[in-house]
Write a structure and sequence with these properties.
Blueprint: H1 2-24, H2 43-81
Length: 83
Amino acid sequence: MVEILNWSSVKFAVLAAFFWFWSAVVRLPKEINSGYGGIGGTAQELGDKLRNQSFRSAVGALCAAIAALCQAGAMAAPSFAAF
């Protein structure tokens, strides 16, 4: 049981790192169009990319929380095995 929890913790920690890195490399427009043919992205594009970035970061945080819970379970499991 402890080994399963430890490996689950490792897997979720790696997933957390992946999703946080993936959220960090989202390319945002450097400039926003004012609606008069300017250079850069639109406000809608910026909003979409920020939502995408936020979702990836949230998944990374969830994976990190699961990894922490698995590790806590792995540490507590020997105490409960005595019962």
